[in-house]
Amino acid sequence: MWITKEKFMHHSVVIHSTPDFPRKLKVSHSTLIRADPLRVYLALTTAEGDDAWFATGANVNARPGREIHFRWVNWGPGHSSTQATGLVLEAIPGSRFIFQCHPDLTDYATTVEINLAPIEGGTIVRP
Q1: Residue 36, in any domain of the structure
Q2: Is residue 1 part of a domain?
Q3: Average pLDDT across the chain, whole number
Q4: What is the pLDDT of residues 9-25, one digit of tens each?
Q5: Is there a domain that residue 100 lies in?
Q6: Which of 79, 80, 60 is CA-nearest to residue 70?
Q7: Backbone dihedral region for residue 107 (phi beyond 0: left; psi -120 to 50: alpha; all else: beta)
Q8: Is the dihedral of CA 103, 49, 8, 119 positive or negative?
Q9: Could you report the per-residue pLDDT of 12-66, keeping only the tens digit for each?
């Protein structure tokens, strides 16, 4: 099947090194999702939403200062099982979600910033 313009999802990824590279790295990714911003927000900020596309057994309390927990079982090509926990920093339904988690080591946190912008035909998701 050919990918038509109507079905194409645009992705862009930008990787920035920081003065602390390789310890700190900034990755920017944006994409078009053909759904309204609130639906995209709920896919990112609810356990049911995250489990549908990202994790296995997520626990999300999408309020600032509350905990976020991701769990993966038999995940990816390496069939690994792992988990990550962190805190929600900002949550604006349909607009913005920022959280920190500790995916590998507990001595540093990864900050994930997601901004949602409505456009005709969907939502742009960007940092």
Answers
A1: yes
A2: no
A3: 82
A4: 444 444 444 555 555 66
A5: yes
A6: 60
A7: alpha
A8: negative
A9: 444 444 555 555 667 788 999 999 999 999 999 999 999 998 889 899 999 999 9
Distances (CA, A) of 2 to 5, 7, 11, 74: 10, 10, 18, 31
**pLDDT of 5 above 70:** no
User: What is the C-alpha to C-alpha distance for residues 56 and 80, in angstroms, rounded to an integer?
Assistant: 12
User: What single DSSP character describes residue 6?
Assistant: G
Residue in the structure block whose two tokens are 């995940």: 75
- Enter the tokens of residue 54: 């990202």
Q: What is the helix (H) or strand (E) element at residue 96, kind and residue range?
A: strand 96-101
- pTM score of the predicted model: 0.78
Domain region containing 75? 11-126
- Per the structure, the count of domains in the chain is 1
- Predicted local confidence at residue 2, as pLDDT: 27
CATH of the domain at 37: 3.30.530.20
HSE-CB at 124 with a 13 A cutoff on CA atoms is: 11
Residue 36: both structure tokens together: 């309204």
Three-class DSSP category at 86? strand
pLDDT value, residue 38: 96
Q: Is residue 2 part of a domain?
A: no
